[in-house]
Write a structure and sequence with these properties.
There is one protein chain. This protein is mainly alpha-helical and 99 residues long. The protein is 70% helix and 0% strand. The relative contact order is 0.08.
């Protein structure tokens, strides 16, 4: 946690694109979460542009994966409903008094 906090603080302070240096909970929280994830998953730390591009790519990949999973679930549900429609009414039951 301390390492991720230190890296996050450095990212904020040393970022040349950051003209207004503020380190408060609201500002640092997204950086801290990102860096904790990198440490947990044993990922490398990159320069700003490389890291940002990689993070964006990972987010897009994750969003696409979730979208694909939702589409697959819908497809399976639709197939199940179609099968139910096909089977509906194809079975007849005999009452014991019908003999």
């Amino acid at each position: 946690m301390q390492i991720a906090f230190t890296i996050s603080t450095c990212e904020l302070i040393l970022n040349p694109e950051n003209s207004d240096i503020q380190v408060n909970e609201t500002v640092i929280k997204p950086f801290l979460i990102k860096n904790l994830k990198k440490i947990r998953e044993n990922e490398d730390f990159y320069l700003y542009e490389e890291s940002d591009k990689r993070d964006e790519r990972d987010e897009k990949d994750e969003e696409e994966k979730e979208k694909d999973e939702r589409e697959e679930e819908k497809k399976v549900e639709n197939e199940r409903e179609e099968k139910e429609k096909d089977y509906k009414g194809t079975f007849s039951y005999q009452n014991s008094s019908d003999k």
